[in-house]
């Protein structure tokens, strides 16, 4: 389906996503706090997100919503009063969820709280300490190497106290109460591919679907990773049973090949839909089996839920060196890649929307296509007509037919339209 | 099984099929008309075909039996009165189902009604216009190029009027009312591989089965393509449920490798029987998945019927350049290929006939083969004995055992005979 | 699991098995008789085997327990009175179950009763004549070639009369009445790999299990091949239904790669357990599909029983030239190979013992591993924790989880222990 959409639209969407990432980049997000709220408010300018606040201390399955963390400033000064590390220059410099501190200490003691990347001496790593009360700074190996012995002033002006976990949710009702879940995480500070690319692509898709006719109900979640997904699942157990398809969106802006990680179910319709779209996309891609490590698919695919939720990315986390470092910046993500990711996602959603099961109303022998003017060229679409007629026995969806015939879903869809118009095909009533 | 039959018998059958093709070659067949009747009458000299006549206008599912077409003569004369195209020389010259015409017209107008083959300038193509009232001539590209400007006399002495669709049917009752369907088409004029090879092989098989003991009931259909199969199915809905196995026979005389196209079911016993025979035949061959285009398997395998009917051919239609042209003639088909096709078909039929399920009557431990003199050589047939005993638990047919063990069906059959004779094996009663 | 056990233990077990083989080697065993009794009495010094005596003439399914065969002496003397063949030097010299004979005959007549190996002129073959009353001698091709014309005195001091078939059985009760069957044959005379290696390894395993906690009940059979297995099955039809896993042990002392032959079921837990252990063992190995020829798996896997019994060997019988000859001697089997085989078998048994199904007690989202101190290193065992939690939904055993995750069974077992200790996992109650 991507082939029918003008190339310029894809480029436009890629540039739009990139601008959104650039706007969100400076904010200091974490799993709670004002950085998350600012992020969600910026998104509300485009899509009518509902913002939920869940109090610290709320029990969510085996977990407890943590205290809220906020930070105003942080630095390390050397004995001459020079800032050798400055949070204002890069919010990755402070380990996320660091407790407040204001002390002097010798370099030898300070080093216990410093994190750098030996293999990439100019990059600043991204570290967190959500569930262990401590503090720390991240810096480049180069700067670390230049620190001389002596006393340093350490200052982190943060607070960690009862507050809320904040997340955004948007529900776009469809004709059916069955749902498609689209989930992205909003807990990382100045990191572009992980997680702003997912946030931007999800926002663009929501915008598009807001004005489109919808078979399914679409539910978008903009949540902090892990604790956010767990919190949402704990508060929405009644909703979970309506989820028919789902995707975790992350890492969609780097130039690497598309990577789809299957749901735990492994052969859910979302898995076959994405696999079909990818195999007909012409894009280099990989399909990975489910494994229990990764992003929020870990929670959606935990055995008690076992939801049909896969993960759509480009290069998987951990396979690109920029991952969780200051190099995951505005130079790393690319409008072209973002546009391509968006187009693919749109095609997947269209496949889900359109993939229904039809019945051949003339199942005994072939209907006479010629008298209806449908048989002009057997090389062209007539093969799609024959395949759809032959396999529409109520046991196969249009996607099943595309897979069996080797045709693209869009060819099968075109044939379906022609046959329905000619009263040779009828959509099956869903089971009550 | 082919290996046990004398080579000379295969040669003899090949020559016999070839002579039959030569006799039928000159007749001008179409989907209706006297050419079909003459063809069936010639076959009646060998097998007691019943000839059915179905009136024009009869509704058969989504189709209507067309008017009957007959032709006496046709030509195109140039302005000097010379016949440049002459139906009497080759019946492919007239587009089948051409309406009568007798006019003079300039070359420029005539050319709208002329068909030739650019890639094969000396061959005359085969064209039809069953469901569109028009007329036309087919000729070689060479002759077409020699036509000079001027007026031409066009004459087609045909008639298209209410009559009948004619087909032949032969039922050979077996011990069981379950049926094997063998179908070939008789609607093509002077074309040897497509369709006379199928007609000849089917006739030879019918002849052979007439005098053989039969487990199954055999039903041979000699029908016009598409409309004939549809007509037969519409008139025999009660019979259809008894068809357990079936083959469409066509294109069995060219020198290419055997090609089997599976039934829509894909793993019906006919599919595994043919695959087994081919893999043990030593013949080069291909097995194709079902697709909804082709010969009359399109109708038998339409979703409302979904019969276990595959297609047996050598080179598939459209993959040999002689297809649907005057080059599909008596030089193209070969007695050797015909004999080989017949032998293969005979082996398939024998497999179907013999493939039943047996029960090991001594299923607890091995029976003592030695005391029955059955254990002479473990390298030889004793392995077949052991396999048949081990797997005859009521869930596997002899063919299943052959496939699982890697032995040929004939080895398994031989072991079955020995074990039945020694009261170690018994045929399972079919389910009531 | 093999990796955790000290290498020295494996070596010790290998040497112990080798000494046991050396002790048993001189005895002249057959399918009945005093050689079998002596063998079993020697084993009783280590394990409390129960010895069963089944009278000749007892009907066992399609077979009858044969007369008992015993032999005191045998030789062939040339016309100078020199012993050219002497049973006292090698008990393979007499065809097992030879009837008594004491005659003079010319070489030409004697040769009808002589067996040698053309391809291995210095080896003495092993032959039997259990069910055909005759007699014979086996000798090397070299000695045979040196025999000159003249009369020879032939003497076999054997008896074949009503007696018993003797076998040994050891049952080690476990917490469960479900059984693991371990079967080896004891009917071959001075042959080391076939069958003494199996006898020795089975004895060592029984010794080990005698003092270990046991989930399953273990049943060891030391039986004559074929007729012994048939006799045991005929006398123990009530027991058979409790056998959950089983192995035939034979050919475990040669230096070739491990070969596992699957049960007839093909995907029984014993099949997947052995396959998993082998794939994680680092040992060269092969896995063969079931076939109905071989050792006593033929009887256990006959269709009436269809027990989950595979066969564990190194080089399969018939694929090593020493098979059934005097070269299958104390030089052919090796302590190292025996030790390795024992260790592998011990690992398989441990897998069977430990392979149960658990339930994640916190199945909704991941439990918070961090607060339990279980999340230190995601690269290490935390992946095993995540896999066990994610897949312990009651439908998968620990072995299934190991196979799905690609982890070793021992990693999965370690994770299970940690999770059970942390009350995150609980063993499923077996179905009543």
Q: Could you explain the architecture of this structure?
A:
Three copies of one chain form a homotrimer. Chain A has 432 residues and is of the alpha/beta class. Chain A has three domains: 2-65 and 164-353, Aminopeptidase; 68-161, Domain of unknown function DUF2172 (Glucose Oxidase, domain 1), CATH 3.50.30.90; 357-427, Arc Repressor Mutant, subunit A (Orthogonal Bundle), CATH 1.10.10. Helix content of chain A is 32%, strand content 23%. Chain A has helices spanning 7-24, 34-44, 107-110, 141-146, 192-210, 227-235, 237-240, 269-279, 297-300, 335-354, 382-391, 398-405, 409-421; strands spanning 50-55, 59-60, 63-64, 68-77, 83-86, 101-106, 114-115, 137-138, 151-161, 164-172, 179-185, 217-223, 243-249, 258-261, 285-288, 309-313, 357-360, 393-397, 425-427. Chain A has an eight-stranded mixed sheet, sandwiched between helices. In chain A, strands 5-4-9-6 form a four-stranded antiparallel sheet. In chain A, strand 14, helix 8 and strand 15 form a beta-alpha-beta unit. In chain A, helix 12 (398-405) crosses helix 13 (409-421). Chain A is elongated, with a radius of gyration of 25 Å. The relative contact order of chain A is 0.13. The mean pLDDT of chain A is 95. Chain A binds chain C through residues 60-63, 131-132, 226, 229-230, 233-234, 264, 291-293, 298-299, 301-306, and chain C through 360, 362-368, 370-371, 378, 383, 386-387, 389-393, 405.
């Amino acid at each position: 389906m991507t082939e029918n959409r003008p190339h310029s639209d894809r480029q436009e969407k890629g540039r739009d996503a990139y601008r959104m990432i650039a706007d969100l980049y400076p904010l200091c997000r974490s799993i709670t706090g004002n950085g998350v709220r600012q992020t969600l408010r910026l998104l509300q300018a485009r899509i009518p997100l509902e913002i939920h606040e869940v109090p610290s201390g709320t029990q969510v399955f085996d977990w407890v919503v943590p205290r809220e963390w906020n930070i105003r400033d942080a630095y390390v000064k050397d004995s001459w009063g020079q800032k050798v590390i400055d949070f204002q220059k890069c919010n990755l410099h402070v380990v996320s969820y660091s407790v407040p501190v204001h002390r002097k200490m010798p370099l030898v003691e300070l080093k216990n709280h410093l994190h750098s990347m030996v293999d990439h001496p100019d990059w600043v790593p991204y570290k967190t300490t959500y569930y262990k009360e401590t503090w720390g700074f991240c810096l480049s190996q180069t700067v670390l190497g230049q620190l001389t012995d002596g006393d340093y002033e350490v200052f982190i002006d943060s607070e960690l106290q009862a507050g809320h976990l904040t997340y955004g949710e948007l529900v776009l009702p469809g004709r059916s109460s069955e749902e498609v879940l689209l989930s992205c995480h909003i807990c990382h500070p100045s990191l572009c591919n992980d997680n702003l690319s997912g946030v931007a692509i999800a926002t663009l898709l929501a915008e598009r679907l807001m004005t489109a006719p919808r078979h399914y109900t679409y539910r978008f979640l903009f949540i902090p990773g892990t604790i956010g997904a767990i919190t949402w699942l704990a508060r929405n157990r009644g909703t979970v049973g309506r989820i028919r398809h789902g995707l975790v969106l992350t890492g969609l802006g780097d130039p690497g090949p598309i990577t789809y990680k299957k749901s735990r179910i492994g052969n859910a319709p979302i898995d076959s839909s994405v696999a079909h779209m990818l195999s007909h996309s012409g894009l280099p891609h990989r399909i990975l089996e489910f494994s229990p490590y990764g992003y929020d698919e870990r929670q959606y695919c935990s055995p008690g839920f076992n939801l049909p939720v896969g993960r759509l990315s480009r290069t998987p986390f951990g396979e690109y060196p920029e991952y969780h470092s200051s190099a995951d910046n505005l130079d790393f993500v690319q409008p072209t890649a973002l546009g391509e990711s968006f187009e693919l996602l749109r095609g997947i959603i269209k496949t889900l929307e359109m993939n229904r099961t039809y019945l051949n109303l003339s199942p005994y022998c072939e209907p006479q296509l010629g008298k209806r003017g449908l048989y002009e060229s057997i090389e062209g679409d007539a093969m799609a007509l024959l395949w759809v007629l032959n396999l529409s026995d109520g046991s196969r969806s249009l996607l099943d037919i595309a897979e069996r015939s080797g045709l693209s879903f869009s060819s099968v869809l075109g044939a379906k339209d022609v046959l329905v118009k000619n009263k040779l095909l009828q959509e099956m009533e869903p089971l009550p």
